[in-house]
Design goal:
The complex is a heterodimer of chains A (669) and B (203).
Chain A lengths: L2 H19 L5 H12 L7 E4 L1 H6 L16 E4 L5 E4 L12 E4 L2 E2 L20 E7 L3 E3 L2 E3 L3 E6 L4 E13 L18 E13 L3 E12 L4 H10 L7 E14 L2 E18 L4 E19 L4 E16 L10 E15 L3 E15 L8 E13 L5 E11 L4 E14 L2 E12 L8 H5 L4 H4 L4 E3 L6 E14 L3 E19 L3 E3 L4 E3 L2 E22 L3 E15 L1 H7 L5 E12 L2 E10 L2 E2 L6 H4 L7 E2 L2 E12 L4 E8 L18 E11 L4
Parallel strand pairs in A: 4-9, 23-28
Antiparallel strand pairs in A: 1-6, 2-3, 4-5, 6-9, 7-8, 10-11, 10-36, 11-12, 12-13, 13-14, 14-15, 15-16, 16-17, 17-18, 18-19, 19-20, 20-21, 21-22, 22-24, 24-25, 25-28, 26-27, 28-29, 29-30, 30-31, 31-34, 32-33, 34-35, 35-36
Chain B lengths: L3 H25 L10 E14 L6 E14 L4 E13 L7 E15 L4 E15 L11 E17 L3 E12 L5 E15 L2 H7 L1
Antiparallel strand pairs in B: 1-2, 1-8, 2-3, 3-4, 4-5, 5-6, 6-7, 7-8
Classes of the chains: A mainly beta (669), B alpha+beta (203).
Chain lengths: 669, 203
């Protein structure tokens, strides 16, 4: 039945490729692609994503960036909030990836569940995004599980602009709704809007941004669950963010301040409860950062931020109420000393958290203090070393985090990198609900979820070793290969065997927290990047990872991460104002053992195993009106594979996304 | 992975691309083509329709009209247009509906002997379906769905800027159960020089 559309879909993909290449010799694509495939190589430690890449790929929401983080394994239930597993990041959820905005850490986690959409930055503000896969210390933060650093644009002159986007997932019944072939309707995606105004002079700049995202569950099973708990409301998610930032030069240095408020009416998938819960999340945050030079080779860097995260009650059928507000202050300052052979940083930081809830907490907060240091050494020719250490004092324990890296430039075009790290995660920084549950936050118990534990959360430990070789073969081709190992111990893992309630069409299960779990994950990665004639760029990444040691529970948790990921991206600048982009993705099967009983109990509606899939996405972007106006169109899943990323998550059929962006003044590109 | 990838998609797609390469290569030298957005063609077609698969068990698409604008692109031709046609129900149990296919397309044109030219391309768009019948609940009287199409046309240029066009098209609408159409049409098109301000805007 779907052969026709597959034929057309593939023709669209290849046609797009041919469209750009026809006048210049289309054989180049195939030949270059084959050459690259033959010469595969691997992963670089850090990737910088530029605005043009974001626009080419049709990204309109920050969460869509998961499609550009090539070697991070994504998963989602609703298609709006995405979790990501960087290298070896699955089994140990005690520390998530770190998000920085202009060197200030932004805390958007809700009991360990992250959504990039909550980061108070709009796509139109982005100057670049640094994605680091290795354990690293950056701006006073130790990121052992990946770092995403958003750098925002500094405007020049006056500028105003805005974007509007919408999407449509195929699979509606159409006229068949009136026949025996009737199927449920599929809602649209969006519309999303954003508007901004900005001014930048020689010494100061200011910007205000507003954006709104709207998202509907498009999958029937998700919709049924949400209707079941929605208390009569039509399920939809709406995120509204207003933010302002300004910066300038003062005391010989540069400084920046920002403030933002987000209201997110969400169907929050809270796994310990087993299903989505309607909540209103409010995120209020503000911060400052800057650098002041002290002479030619020294300086002081500082950053501080305040974040208030509330999870408020929203009408729902079970009257569930998180009743949770968390206020967090964090800050750090460091002195940097830059010599010709040695760069040094010495700093101190703090983190203070206070929680407010109607539950009687034995402790309503905690305070942490850090001292840290970092060194970059260039004393030996063709070699460089980096190292960092952070010591954190909690109220009962201390934690050590450290890394060391060696780079050897074996020749002008070949590099070898070796990085090792050790990190301890205090219970306070675990992030999940269990830390607060131990202190009297009984939301789960009051909601009917039994929680048992044999031990309280302790300090989790992780070792890691990463080795990489990267090489440039001329100016047009680069490749790399990497191997890594992550070993975790003293983990507290959740054992939850979900049972399907056919009346509610939802899942639930008691939680048993199992302490002292350990295990190791090994993996490898190959990647390449090729350019031709300055207009064609091909990138490919293959990642493999597998648990190799550890307790059974640890290994079972690792099965939720696909063993194999392969992504190949092609972008082609047909003309300066017209670009084509396409991406081939293969993701192998994953198995979420928490849902092992689901298939039998739900008559096959849900399965613990998430099937492997191949998808092709394609996009075109055209600038008009001397680049003041941009239109883009993005197709996801042209092969109609309807990939699913989570056992009870949505399956996403072929979708189209359209965006119009206008920018007048400083935004003109 | 499903076997269709190798067996049904790659071979025809590869053949299509290869064919495009060969034909494009042979025609490039001979063609004297207008620059990007240098001209705009306005085309009006009468289009006959036929349905394929299970759709034809319930509905019979009628003849309709199509208005299309096209212009030389960086490679080939870019098109945008709308095609309006009726889908009459063949049973009292299901409603008739009017379909409006709004699309964006791209095609490549190869000159043929005489004043003929042949083009082939693809389209993507949305099909707006208007169920304007009393029996249909108000909330469900319209529907929009994504679709793709392959098209081909032969153009005969006469009387300066005027052309006579014969078109053929295969279209798939991505409803859960796909709707497949085949169309054939004839029409007239006229070529205009693009106003300078519009060309600057588009480039």
């Amino acid at each position: 039945m779907r052969t026709g559309v597959r034929l057309i879909a593939c023709t669209v993909f290849w046609g797009c490729a041919a469209a750009g290449v026809l006048p210049r010799g289309c054989v180049a694509v195939g030949a270059l692609s084959s050459w690259c495939a033959a010469a595969n190589a691997g992963a670089l430690e850090r990737r910088v994503i530029h605005p043009d890449e974001i626009r080419e790929a049709g990204v309109t929401r920050l969460s869509d960036l998961v499609f550009l983080f090539d070697d991070w394994a994504p998963s989602t239930v609703d298609g709006f909030s995405w979790e990501m597993a960087p290298r070896g990041g699955a089994a140990d959820l005690s520390a998530s990836w770190v998000v920085l905005v202009d060197s200030v850490r932004v805390d958007t986690d809700r009991f360990g569940y992250s959504s990039l959409n909550l980061v108070p930055v709009h796509v139109s503000e982005i100057d670049s995004i640094e994605v680091t896969r290795l354990p690293v210390m950056s701006h006073g933060e130790f990121a052992q599980n990946g770092l995403i650093h958003f750098h925002t644009r500094r405007p020049a002159g006056y500028g105003i602009g805005g974007t509007a986007s919408t999407g449509n997932e195929s699979g509606d019944p159409g006229p068949y709704a009136y026949t025996g072939y009737a199927t449920p309707n599929v809602d649209r995606i969006g519309p999303d809007y954003a508007a901004y105004g900005e001014y930048g002079g020689d010494d100061a700049w200011v910007r205000a941004v507003f954006h709104r995202h709207r998202h509907y569950p498009t999958d029937e099973s998700v919709l049924v669950r949400n209707f079941g708990i929605a208390a009569g409301e039509y399920p939809q998610m709406t995120l509204i963010t207003g933010s302002g930032s300004f910066g300038g030069n003062l005391l010989g240095g540069s400084h920046r301040a920002f403030a933002a408020g987000t209201r997110f009416d969400d169907y929050f998938f809270f796994k310990p409860y087993g299903r989505e819960i309607p909540v209103r999340s409010r995120l209020t945050t503000g911060g400052i950062s800057g650098r002041v030079p002290l002479g030619e080779r020294a300086g002081i860097e500082y950053r501080a931020a305040y974040t208030q995260q509330e999870i408020e009650h929203r009408p729902n059928s079970f009257d569930l109420d998180f009743d949770w507000r968390e206020e967090r202050w964090r800050g750090s300052a460091e002195v940097s000393l830059d010599g010709s052979a040695l760069r040094q940083r010495y700093g101190a930081g703090f983190e203070s958290v206070r929680s407010k809830t109607g539950y009687a907490l034995s402790k309503c907060g905690y305070d942490l203090a850090d001292i840290y240091a970092g060194w970059d050494l260039f004393a030996i020719e063709d070699h460089s070393q980096r190292a960092g250490v952070r010591l954190t004092a909690g109220e009962e324990r201390t934690a050590l985090e450290a890394f060391a890296a060696e780079r050897w430039r074996a020749s002008p075009s070949h590099r070898f990198d070796l990085t090792a790290s050790y990190a301890e995660t205090l219970p306070e920084r675990d992030g999940r609900i269990w830390y607060w549950d131990e202190r009297g936050y009984r939301f789960l118990e009051d909601s009917g979820v039994d929680v048992s534990r044999d031990k309280t959360i302790g300090t989790a430990r992780r070792w890691s070793v990463d080795a990489a070789w990267s090489a440039d073969f001329g100016s047009r081709f680069a490749g790399a290969a990497a191997a890594w190992y992550r070993a975790s111990s003293n983990l507290v893992l959740e054992e939850q065997r979900f049972q399907f309630d056919s009346f509610e069409q939802a899942f639930g299960a008691p939680v048993r927290l199992v302490a002292d779990q350990e295990g190791g994950v090994a993996g490898g990665e190959l990647s390449f990047e090729a350019r031709a004639a300055g207009v064609l760029k091909l990138c490919g990444v293959y990642r493999f990872e597998k648990p190799v040691t550890g307790d059974e529970m640890f290994r079972l948790r690792c099965d939720a991460v696909p063993r194999h990921l392969f992504r190949q991206t092609a972008s082609y600048a047909v003309a300066p104002n017209f670009k084509l982009w396409a991406r081939l993705n293969y993701t192998s099967a994953a198995e979420w053992h928490d849902y092992d009983d689901a298939e039998a109990q739900s008559d096959g509606l849900y399965r613990a195993k998430v099937d492997p899939f191949v998808t092709i996405d394609a996009a075109a972007v055209k600038w008009l009106w001397e680049r003041r106006l941009k239109g883009s169109i993005l197709f996801r899943d042209l092969l109609r594979q309807a990939p699913r990323y989570h056992p009870i998550g949505a399956a996403f059929d072929t979708s189209v996304f359209v965006e119009i962006e206008v920018g007048i003044g400083s935004q003109e590109r | 992975m499903k076997p269709f990838l190798l067996s049904k998609i790659v071979p025809p797609a590869a053949l299509l691309v290869l064919l495009s390469f060969l034909l494009a290569g042979s025609s490039l030298a001979a063609a004297q083509k207008p620059g990007v957005f240098e001209t705009i063609d306005v085309e009006l077609d009468v289009v006959a329709s036929a349905a394929l698969g299970s759709f034809e068990d319930y509905w019979s698409p009628s003849a309709g009209g199509r208005l299309e604008l096209s212009s030389p692109f960086y490679a080939g031709v870019i098109r945008a247009g709308g095609h309006l046609f009726d889908n009459g129900s063949s049973s009292e149990d299901v409603p008739s509906f009017v379909g409006l296919w709004g699309y964006l397309g791209w095609s490549y044109e190869w000159p043929l002997p005489g004043r003929f030219a042949w083009s082939a391309g693809l389209q993507t768009g949305v099909m707006y379906m208007d169920f304007d019948e009393e029996a249909v609940p108000e909330a469900r009287q319209d529907e929009t769905e994504l679709g793709f199409a392959l098209d081909s046309r032969i153009r005969y240029a006469f009387a300066g800027s005027w052309s006579f066009v014969v078109t053929g098209e295969y279209r798939v609408i991505l409803t859960d159960r796909e709707i497949e159409y085949v169309f054939g049409g004839v029409g007239l098109s006229r070529t205009f020089a693009t106003p300078k301000w519009l060309r600057e805007f588009l480039e």
